[in-house]
């Protein structure tokens, strides 16, 4: 089974958490089930973008079927 490495931050915590999800293209729903957190949370993921000078953005995902974007072969997320 292929896995994807996921690094994620909670709020302003400077140290990321690391886990793996059992899929080459994990979804927001898989990520949320792994966290097992409830409440009014927002999920942002780092992705390449040419829209701004930085070359990267944090995109908010809301649909459990959305595929998590990869950044250099990994998922980098932020939960607020």
Q: How would you describe this structure in keywords?
A:
80 residues; mainly beta; Ribosomal Protein L25, Chain P; five-stranded mixed beta sheet; 1 helix; 5 strands; globular
Would you write up a description of this structure?
With 80 residues, this protein is mostly beta strands. It has a single domain (4-79), classed as Ribosomal Protein L25, Chain P (Beta Barrel). Helices cover 10% and strands 36% of the residues. It has one helix and five strands, in the order E-E-H-E-E-E. The protein has one helix spanning 28-35, and strands spanning 4-10, 17-21, 43-48, 56-61, 75-79. The protein has a five-stranded mixed β-sheet, covered by helices on one side. The radius of gyration is 12 Å and the shape is globular. The relative contact order is 0.31. The model has no long low-confidence stretch (mean pLDDT 91). This is DIX domain-containing protein. Residues 1-80 form the DIX domain. InterPro entries: Axin-like, DIX, DIX_dom_sf, Ubiquitin-like_domsf. Keywords: Wnt signaling pathway. It comes from Helobdella robusta.
């Amino acid at each position: 089974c292929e896995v994807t490495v996921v690094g994620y931050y909670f709020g302003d915590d400077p140290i990321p958490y690391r886990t793996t999800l059992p899929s080459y293209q994990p979804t927001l729903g898989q990520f949320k089930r792994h966290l097992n957190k409830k409440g009014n949370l927002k999920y942002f993921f780092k992705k390449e973008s040419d829209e701004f000078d930085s070359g990267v953005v944090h995109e908010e995902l809301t649909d459990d079927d959305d595929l998590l974007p990869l950044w250099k072969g990994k998922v980098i997320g932020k939960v607020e």
